[in-house]
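## retry 2 of 3
previous attempt timed out at serialization; input unchanged, resubmitting
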Amino acid sequence: MTKKLSQINTQDIKIIFLIFAFYLLPPIAIVIKLIPFSVRFILLTFIGLLMFFIRPSQGTSNIDLGITRKNFEKSIYAIIPLTLLLGLPMILLSLVNDPRIDNSELSIYFYLFYVLISCPLQEFAYRGYLFHLLEVLALKKWTRIIIAAALYSFVHIIFVDIYIVIATLLVGILWNIHYDRYRNLASVTLSHSILGVLSILFGLI
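## retry succeeded, writing output
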């Protein structure tokens, strides 16, 4: 059941503040050049890490946040076709288009950091933790899915490319539908890692 405006309490206000501070302000700061574009991945990782440490004070369990073995195998099998479906167009486009961003100087250590640290923390921030916050606000299923996807898409305004914003909105919706069904971060993290690496290799982000 969705809360009415008159039912909003102090906890709801805190959650709205968290969403504004962690999901809206950082990308805006990069766009207006208060934060360098070059630290974009480090910033996203830091935000995810900060949220991970905030979590215990709010009395949430790992299961609430998708950190569980429940539905692990099912979610992995389910995410593979979706990842292939999304990855194939990226590969085909890379064959006919030049890279938007030159990432050729990135080392293997960056990719290890991205896959092992950055992606898991991004998924914690934009799937596990964000879904939990939206559930505390008593938002309906599809409202949660759309808002979470919109916030995930919004962070990509830093690339100043409407096609990337639209693409990440659609991908975010698909990942959110998957996560809402299986409630396991492992599968969406795997998909995010694969598609993210392809995006960086092909100079999309």
